[in-house]
């Protein structure tokens, strides 16, 4: 065999090494070495090539010949790479503790969960680029479309990942369950970093997750995925106020003026320190050079317009919330919108039965449903809190989905109950 694969095999045999010995010395998996030698994969990236050359103890001339044949092979096979991770954002800010946890979790499965728009995908992509060494077999990314009406089936996800690993189509099983077994075996025999973004539930993930081995899996989901065992869970909260202001300053030049620091902080507060909202607000400010921070602040201060202001192009805070809202049961939707009646920043579980006219135990189940989808935050044992922007979305759904008479009756029933509790 000529080309890169043949040259690699010749050098390995000349060094008196088996594939297993070369894999141990270089940190590149046996499977990857085998695929390279047989021409079943593309030429390796420079860091993988350097690891192989070092383990083989090649001369400078042999290294140059090996690198040249790798470049030649890459030029012959230039095509879009499947499952390529997205580009990390240039102005990523904060999340130091979370990045540290992820970077220390090599060879593990990590679940990053949180409410819509809190920056789960941005975090794992940034962590993968910034601090995840030890994956010479590359990085893969797959959007599982967990909040779509029809999430990606595990068998189809396995097929796409196998193709990204350059497994010959003839070797990919026709049966979906067998394909899932194949991808688990492939990942178990390699040292890959796999990002499974936007997971729907445990049933979608279990068939794809490899056992202990060299690969690391980073999962994002709006759900906590409590049914998965042996995983590290990282829950994301909105950014700290100083981080929110820093993000706005990094996006919009107007926000960098020290004289408007107070206004920038207020814009961040009205965005609920939610990364998606902050990025949209910063982009609106940056693309309207005639605007001041005060102009943006005036628009956000109007609660009836705030969600509309926090929308640009095909991206919007309300649209992100709506994807989770669509996953709710009918009872969950009724509770979600009626919670907009509750005064104050948080509430206890008993008021839920008053709002819905349901059994208290059923009400607790509905609360758990909202928490699971990131539409409500649990505060201690039996108290709950809306994110400010999600509360506005709930109020919007209440106006749209319930007639005025029903809204008045529910509010009066709640007020009578609150007066009785106070008495």
UniProtKB/TrEMBL annotation:
PROSITE patterns in UniProt: HTH_CROC1 (PS50943)
Family annotation (InterPro entries): Cro/C1-type_HTH (IPR001387), Lambda_DNA-bd_dom_sf (IPR010982), P-loop_NTPase (IPR027417)
All copies of domain HTH cro/C1-type, residue ranges: 8-63
SUPFAM superfamilies for this protein: lambda repressor-like DNA-binding domains, P-loop containing nucleoside triphosphate hydrolases
Tree of life domain: Bacteria
Gene3D superfamilies found in the cross-reference section: lambda repressor-like DNA-binding domains, P-loop containing nucleotide triphosphate hydrolases
Pfam families: HTH_3 (PF01381)
CDD domains on file: HTH_XRE (cd00093)
SMART domains in alphabetical order: HTH_XRE (SM00530)
Protein name, entry field: Helix-turn-helix domain-containing protein
Organism: Actinoplanes sichuanensis
